[in-house]
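Take a record:
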Amino acid sequence: MSTGAAVGVGALAAGPVTAACSPFGSTVDEGGKSEGGGGSLRFITPADLGLERDLYKGFLREFEEANSGSKVTVTFEAWDDYMTKLPTLLAGGAAPDLIHQHMSIVQDYGHRGALLDLAPLMERDGIDRSAFVPSLLDAFSEGDKVYGIPKDSAAWGVYYNKDKFDEAGVPYPADDWTMEDLRETARALTRDDQGRSPDDAGFNPKKIKQYGLNWMEPLPTFSENARAFVLGLGGDWYDEDYTTTLIDEAPALEQFELFRAMRCDDRSTPSPALDLGQGDPFRAQLTAMTVGHHSTDFFLREESVEFSWGVTFIPGGPGGQFVAVGCSGWAIAAGAKNKEGAWELLKHLTSEPVQRSFAEQKRWAPSIQNAMGALIREDSTDGFVKVHVDPLRERSDRTVITMKFPANQSRIQEAYAGNFDSIYTTCKSDDIEGAARATKEQVDSILAEG
């Protein structure tokens, strides 16, 4: 998740269950006894080794204890492995009951009929939609259909290295800063190996020691945070009905040019390849700022970095200032054998106690508004509550938004890559308008397929 990147991920009792058994076969306990049948449920999810998997196992045990006769078989996967395996599992005859869905893929699976519409179950059982961060549930919905329920949240902001700012004599970002402020600040914090900035004579763009800002993909393909920028400039990526793209309009072109200029003219953001090759450039102090959500703060603390930091909002513009939020969620496979059991488990995992338990670890943020306070530390970072918490519990004057990723995302990504790589990856072209026109034609054609 989102981001990175759980709302109700909790009560699938695996006990001593491990992923060493067949993905959706019988559960095997430590004594080798196989159990299955009746109330058996099959659950697959990406999860990191250690704390995350341990939490899941605990929630699953609680679910089994509270639901006599239920038995959950859980399979944990690495993120990349999960994304590769899921299409095969859903297309075959061994579809799991409960599955993980990221907001970037849920519309794709929903449109293909691979996910159960949860709206009738929510209405039947009186699920209060207002308990969740509203925009997150919208990202998992299409018209009257609900393809999944959010299990976590990730509100984006801009982190900054206070020490780098102090060394350069640059003021910390103001909460109401603009896109141009972002560019100027990043430029002022960029340094070559002799300590010169892009405004100094002799600046060497081939020997940059410190960049102003991590590379941020400025396209509507990989992260919902890009939408906060284009909305701030007064535009959007798609029309209301998702029938056409708006990337040939002035606000989108302005965003594209902003990041092209920062990357290729100012040299204030590293190339995408260099960014990836440095681990996390912000934590390694290769960059002075980064666009990140609450887990940025978590990992800075876990690694005990030797600098002070703060976080503020993504900059605004004539269109306003926005807090972009992303998430993953839980969905029930259309081919699930135990849909009712999966629904009961999903409700448990999205319950407030489970959500609060995850949030208390500070690594994962909840999607239930009432559990959001559990993410707050006594020694919270400057701006943390203001950026990551208050907007999601409706205590902010900033507008919370998310992004609905249309179906056929892989093809949409290919269209953007084919036209924009020469602009952002190699800086060999500055033809933003030409790339936008070509991409719009391809993407609009994909959208027209429904």
